[in-house]
Amino acid sequence: MEENTTTTILMTALSTLTPPQISTLTATVSSLLHHHRRRLSALLSSTTLFSLSLHHLHSLSLHRKSLLIAQHLLSILSQFSRIFNPTNARMPPCTATINDRDLDSVLLLLLLCEVRQYDPKSLKTLSPSDWRDSLSDYVSSTMLTFSGIECSNSETLIKYIELVTKCKKFVDVMGCRDGKVRREVAASVAAVVALPSVEVKQGGKECAVCKEEMKLGRDVCELPCEHQFHWMCILPWVVKRNTCPCCRHRLPTDDVYGEIERQWEVVVKIGSGCL
């Protein structure tokens, strides 16, 4: 997906937010970005921490770097989808947890990519041991982005859009490079455990999996999309795939790439008025 398309989709979805939702999202994003700024500041202020983070980054395979970016994207994209909780309040959201060392590596990787795009020759003429000073100078020259100065709601959301767009572009490019195709992923354990049991109150309904009628008064499983199934039929299904057998509605998944795809679909539907 092209960068401008991603940005347009995000801006369209954001335009549907109510003032209270905007305030909630802005406060959450502001806190998140502030945390990133503090980590990056500490990273560039310490020769030892910078060296360790750079070494760790160099030790990672291309696939692992892509996975870290994907985890980072999921953590920031989740802030948006939580505001709407578009499926059902009982469904626990899935987010990728990322430790401080990996977060430092992701922030350093993103900064290196940004500097390389801004000035391709600046890092090539320097040895890695001198990168810290060059990166610090770049960060200082872009004070509005990384300083602790308070930003307006619009500026905070613009930064959020830029961050999501940057990470998603990287993940999409790596997906194309790796030749990844859409695959089935299992629903998360937390999502499966949270599925409710409801009593069948209307005759004539059949389970879409086994095609047999669900008897009146029987307890069956109801997905967030309100389609109902025999428990013995739906459980083997959701441990292999996170989609409803009837409408393909997606349950949360522990697969990072699958969850990014699920949450991005939510953003697209919000912008198109389908939610």
TrEMBL record:
SUPFAM superfamilies: RING/U-box (SSF57850). Keywords: Metal-binding, Zinc, Zinc-finger. GO terms for biological process: protein ubiquitination. The keyword Acetylation does not apply. It catalyses: S-ubiquitinyl-[E2 ubiquitin-conjugating enzyme]-L-cysteine + [acceptor protein]-L-lysine = [E2 ubiquitin-conjugating enzyme]-L-cysteine + N(6)-ubiquitinyl-[acceptor protein]-L-lysine. Residues 207-248 form the RING-type domain. GO terms for molecular function: ubiquitin protein ligase activity; zinc ion binding. The keyword Ribosomal protein does not apply. GO terms for cellular component: cytoplasm. Its EC number is 2.3.2.27. It is an enzyme of class 2 (transferase). It comes from the Eukaryota. InterPro entries: Znf_RING, Znf_RING/FYVE/PHD. This is RING-type E3 ubiquitin transferase. It comes from Tagetes erecta.
